[in-house]
Amino acid sequence: MSARLPYVEDPPAEVAPVYEEAKKATGRVLNITKLMAHHPPTVPAFQAWYRTTREGPLDPKLRQLAYVKTSLLNRCGY
User: Fold this and answer.
1) CB-CB contact of 18 with 44 (8 Å)
2) Residues 6+ apart with CB under 8 A from 12
3) DSSP letter string over 23-74?
4) Closest CA to 37 of 13, 59, 61
5) Count of domains in the chain?
6) Domain, as residue range, for 43
7) Nearby residues of 22 by Cβ (< 8 Å), 6 or more positions away
8) Side-chain half-sphere CA neighbours of 27 within 13 A
9) What pLDDT does 76 receive?
10) What's the rounded Cα separation, in Å, for the pair 15 and 36?
11) Are 33 and 47 in contact (CB under 8 A)?
């Protein structure tokens, strides 16, 4: 399934630091971030929340299980 909005590959200035941080941390910018960049004020808040989730105390395997279960419950392919 493709996105209904195009991904923002060249971010506006206020989102560029978030893109750089993502590239440094994971080697790429997540597609959800590229979509959210259409509304720049949401990106830093989302990134801060995501970082907390990603780096939290939850075991990585359990975290993945939670992602998959939530996806299944919402009938969303993951």
Assistant:
1) yes
2) 37, 40
3) HHHHSS--HHHHHHTTSTTHHHHHHHHHHHHHHSSS-HHHHHHHHHHHHHHT
4) 13
5) 1
6) 16-73
7) 28, 29, 30, 33, 47
8) 0
9) 87
10) 10
11) yes
In a domain, 38, yes or no: yes
In this predicted model, which residue has the larger pLDDT, 50 or 69? Answer: 69
pTM flag (> 0.85): no
Tokens (6 digits) for 78: 């993951």
* 69-78 contacts, C-beta under 8 A, 24 or more apart: 77/1
pLDDT tens by residue, 21-58: 889 988 999 999 999 999 999 998 988 888 887 788 88
Q: What would the two tokens of residue 63 be?
A: 């975290």
